[in-house]
Amino acid sequence: MLYEQIRKNKIKTVFIVAGFVLLVLAVGVVISYLNYGDPLPGLIFTPVFSLFYIGIVIMSSTNIVMKMNHAQEITSVDQHRFLWHTVENMAMVARVPMPRIFIINDASPNAFATGLKPEKAAVAVTTGLLDQLTREEVEGVIAHEVAHIKNYDVRLATVTLALVSVIAIMSDIGSRMLFFRSVGGRRDNNQNPIFMIVGLVLLILAPLIATLVNLAISRNREFLADASGAELTRNPDALASALEKIANIQTPVKEASRSSASLYFSDPLKKKLSGLFSTHPNPAERIARLRSM
């Protein structure tokens, strides 16, 4: 059951990401066709612009994310012996470099990982997590976050978030171009009216579709990190118990930044959203999957 979940989640992520890339290209092609009657310029320009924008976003460092969430780094084992050794042990089991460790002074239990690659990764936990969970439960949460690092989830989340922004920017520019061309009376009579209608609808809906796809990727990677974390500890019940406790606490993480909320182990804002518009899967479903392993 454990390995089957890991395999299915990886395959599902590949298909979702592939669909995301196709959506980005489709938006570029639609903008080019609607404004110039030729899809080729959009097919060429879109990948170039996307790569450039992703490069800018990737330059945002781990330190920026930690500052946004008011996290303080611990640099020696003497500052928090249990947390240090737990992170160290999980990194060793996962065969990744030991990440930097941060603590957020907040009573609501939660945690997150960041870093575009294992060599530059970091794990942050709230004081509430350390105070309110048992040692086994904390170990389960840390294993979940180390699994994110091992699976390059933060890099994936960064790229997909950048692509959402690319689609939003391109849709806005494309709509403005189309408006000004219509006002100026410049139209290409050779354009297929059906293609134009479909293209216009896609242009309007693309930002919403991109956001939903990004959220789907985020939820899927949480399931994968749960399964991978359970694999590291061989104790899925501890992770399920930790998730159950955190989900039942309705106090949000006051220090959490909204822009990094999707990185957390559980929704730090306690929005109680479910389905397509949630950043995290339903806790009950996550707990059921863990307890079935």
Write a compact overview of the structure shown.
The model has no long low-confidence stretch (mean pLDDT 84).
Strand order of the largest sheet: 1-2-4-3
Number of helices: 10
- What is the approximate shape? elongated
Strand content: 5-15%
Global structural class: alpha+beta
Largest sheet: 4 strands, mixed
Order of helices and strands: HHHEHEEEHHHHHH
Which structural traits does this protein have?
293 residues
What is the topology?
Layout: H1 2-36, H2 40-58, H3 62-68, E1 71-74, H4 81-94, E2 100-104, E3 111-114, E4 122-126, H5 127-132, H6 135-150, H7 153-183, H8 193-233, H9 236-248, H10 283-291
Parallel strand pairs: 2-4
Antiparallel strand pairs: 1-2, 3-4
Helix pairs in contact: 1-2, 1-7, 1-8, 2-7, 4-6, 6-8, 6-9, 7-8, 9-10
What does this structure look like?
With 293 residues, the chain is α+β, with helices and mostly antiparallel strands. It has 10 helices and 4 strands. The chain has helices spanning 2-36, 40-58, 62-68, 81-94, 127-132, 135-150, 153-183, 193-233, 236-248, 283-291, and strands spanning 71-74, 100-104, 111-114, 122-126. It has a 4-stranded mixed beta sheet with strand order 1-2-4-3, with helices on both faces. Helix 2 crosses helix 7 and helix 4 crosses helix 6. It is elongated and about 65 Å long. It starts with a helix and ends with a helix. The model has no long low-confidence stretch (mean pLDDT 84).
